[in-house]
Design goal:
globular, alpha+beta, single chain
């Protein structure tokens, strides 16, 4: 499981609009996350975002990623899980949307 590089790029762009002078402007985005085409599975988990946000809020000593992403991006970033099937090697280029399909 990882975050799509396109979301990191979008986040830096959006955050820079809010705070032009920030520490993330010069990030090497191509060295972060995973390129979108590598993902084999995308799961819609929007129904569970409230649980993720509540769990993140329980970690009082850490900064929540929800706080660093603009609200407009929450559903896109935290409402979809991106995964890569490692083994067995995928036999199709179609994206999986259900881990239990066919079982």
């Amino acid at each position: 499981m990882s975050i799509a590089r396109s979301f990191i790029r979008r986040w830096v762009d959006e955050y820079t609009k809010i705070k032009p002078d920030n520490d993330y402007v010069n990030l090497d985005i191509d060295a972060m996350g995973v390129s979108d085409e590598r993902f084999t599975t995308r799961l819609d988990v929007k129904d569970y975002m409230h649980l993720r946000k509540a769990a993140a809020a329980e970690h009082h000593s850490e900064i929540s990623l929800f706080d660093t992403f603009p609200e407009s991006m929450h559903a896109d970033v935290f409402g979809t899980d991106h995964l890569i099937l490692v083994a067995p090697e995928p036999t199709s280029t179609a994206l999986e949307t259900d881990l239990f399909e066919g079982l």
